[in-house]
Amino acid sequence: MCRALPVAAFSLLALACAPASPPPAAPAPAVPAAAAAAALPDARAQQALGEQLVAAFNDAWNRHDMDAFAALQAEDADFVNVFGMWWHGRPEIHKNHVGIHETVFRQSRLSSVRVETRFVAPDIAVVRWAWELTGVVAPDGQPAPDMQGILVHVARREGDRLRIVTTQNTRATADAFHAVRNAGAPASPAP
């Protein structure tokens, strides 16, 4: 017991001498729900903006125009590809897509299967879409199997269009993709 007292006293002394925590910040003023909802585009306009972004993404990809592809990204965007490579900033996203479009994706064709757009704030949208990719070649020049997956963009509304802030690309298994494509509802994870 005698040893426990000095240890406890030392712990209390260390705690007493530690710098004080800053006072909690005052909460931000709440925006009335009705006002926030009124600033959102209606559901049809939300979906149209998402589909416009996806169409521009597919068009730039299929023309292998990585300048147009990069222009869809915010200057400080980040992009995680299907292999988990994480690129930061428009220049790095551009450079890495130029490289793969000169090699394995030089003959590829990208198409969207299903697009869902949801605004989470008046100027911020989540655009999720299922994609199919054909015409990929392996590094040895041989045809590679077709691929499919789900792309998720967080995008900022700029006037009458969306600009991508962040992207997460996930390759889907054939079963998961079949469920997403045909059911019209999110696929359930495998047990």
Strand neighbour order, sheet with most strands: 2-1-6-5-4-3
Number of helices: 6
Taken as a percent bin, the fraction of beta residues is 25-35%
Overall pLDDT: 81
Overall shape? globular
In total, the number of strands is 6
Oligomer: single chain
Order of helices and strands: HHHHEEHEEEEH
Keywords, separated by commas or semicolons:
191 residues, alpha+beta, six-stranded mixed sheet, 6 helices, disordered N terminus
Question: What does this protein structure show overall?
Answer:
- With 191 residues, this protein is an alpha+beta fold.
- 37% of the residues lie in helices and 30% in strands.
- The chain has helices spanning 4-17, 33-39, 43-63, 66-71, 90-101, 174-183, and strands at 73-80, 86-88, 109-121, 124-134, 147-158, 161-171.
- A six-stranded mixed β-sheet has the order 2-1-6-5-4-3, with helices on both faces.
- The longest helix has 21 residues, at 43-63.
